[in-house]
Amino acid sequence: MQRLTPAQRLIVAVAVLASFVAFLDGTVVTVALPAISRELGGGLTTQQWAVDAYLVTLSSLILLAGSLSDAFGRVTIMRVGLIAFGIASVAVAAAPDPLFLVVARALQGAAGALLVPSSLALITATMRDEVQARAIGVWTACTTAAQLVGPLLGGLFVDFLSWRLVFLINVLPIAVTLLLLRRVQLPEHQRGAKVDWWGGALCAIGLAALVFALIEQPRLGWTAPAIWLSGLAGIALLFGFVARQRRIAEPMMPLQLFRVRNFAWGNLSTLFVYAALSLNGMVIGVYLQQGAGLGATQAGLASLPITILMVLLSSRAGSWAGKHGPRIFMTLGPALMAVGALLLLTVGSDFDYWWQVLPSMLVLGLGLSLTVAPLTSAVLGSIGAERSGIASAVNNAVSRVAGLFVIALLSTIVGGRLDLAGFHSAAVVTAALFAIGALVSWIGIRRPAQSAGGS
């Protein structure tokens, strides 16, 4: 097995740290939501916007950021993203009211969008074949870990310091990454690379308008002009985005990638699985505090078994999928997670973590461990090495959009209140999403040929 050179290890370290910042901040907020709404007000709506304002800009700009990386240089775009992310994080920590918080979170997501594709581009531009696959595997494992340890870190900060300091966790990794970035030497841009500004605007504004309608609808009603007009506008703009991607010569999201079977079905499975993960993560983090009366740290620790099982099993699952193909694991994993979500229906008014939540966390952790590496392998392995960067960016965008919309629908899913009945409703919807993800994988995923093509 070919070893990474010192220069390649530096590239991987920078890519992991930069992405870790963006993904950590997407989940660290979860356990801070009750404290945020207590201090700033706004209830469930503020909590939804604190999550979705970040996801709207992150998911809608992540593909545009890939074009910026090609046009202006990966190192330059990453440096801008890191500095902007740090400034936006300070603004979130200083937020005096919900509106300021939401705007700062949106800016934070926009900066985060600059980090993910540029970090992947560093890997794909400097490594090939087996070395590239190993580097992408390390990147995927670390970004997944960031999403899993986020709630625990957030809980510790909320309980022992302040929810505001939750958003400053990333200051140290940003500083370290900026220092390491000074040692990275790469060609700074491609001649003639174009940026699809109109496509980026259509995607960002369309997603924002649709999410606004979904979040505010329970409060204003579908008949309110602000709701149905923004909803229709969002749908029209997103259709316009897809139409533009079909028409232009250098699209942000090359639609021909979806002609590759495992890429198309793998992304559809990603949509349902990551929607379920986002819904489950937010509901667990909030309900265990507001409904079950746990502290923020305890709520963060609740999902620790998932992290432990991921560390122990995910690499083995990747090896098994390499031998037997990803289909069985992408089916069995989400199916197990559906069972884990249904186990949360045992949560009652007399709360007991050990009997009502821990069994669910164990089953969810086992299922997630079987799913993540095979899913990544199926999606990226179906596309040629020369297009793996954009393939990974598209898959990341799909997973963020999945979380974006399910959080926007949270109030509808839980019936307006995240009480015990709402918690149970969310568990059922989560299980259904996981089950659909399993079904999609079983129907669509095939064992890849010995050498994946995919242009």
What does the model show?
By secondary structure, the protein is mainly α. The chain has three domains: 194 residues, Up-down Bundle (Growth Hormone, Chain: A), CATH 1.20.1250.20; 53 residues; 200 residues, Growth Hormone, Chain: A (Up-down Bundle), CATH 1.20.1250.20. The protein has 19 helices and no strands. Helix 4 runs antiparallel to helix 8 and helix 14 runs antiparallel to helix 19. The longest helix has 32 residues. The two termini are 27 Å apart. It comes from Leucobacter iarius. InterPro entries: MFS (IPR011701), MFS_dom (IPR020846), MFS_trans_sf (IPR036259). It is a multi-pass membrane protein. Keywords: Membrane, Transmembrane, Transmembrane helix. This is MFS transporter.
Instruction: Tell me roughly what share of residues is in helical segments.
Output: over 70%
Q: How would a textbook summarize the main sheet?
A: none
Distance between the termini: 27 Å
What is the second-level CATH architecture of the largest domain? Up-down Bundle
Task: Report low-confidence residues grouped into runs of 5 or more.
Answer: 450-455
The counted number of beta strands is: 0
Strand content: under 5%
| Average of per-residue pLDDT values | 80
Radius of gyration: 21 Å
Number of helical runs? 19
Number of domains: 3
CATH superfamily of the largest domain: MFS general substrate transporter like domains
Structural class category: mainly alpha
Briefly say what this structure is:
This is MFS transporter. This protein is an all-alpha fold and 455 residues long.
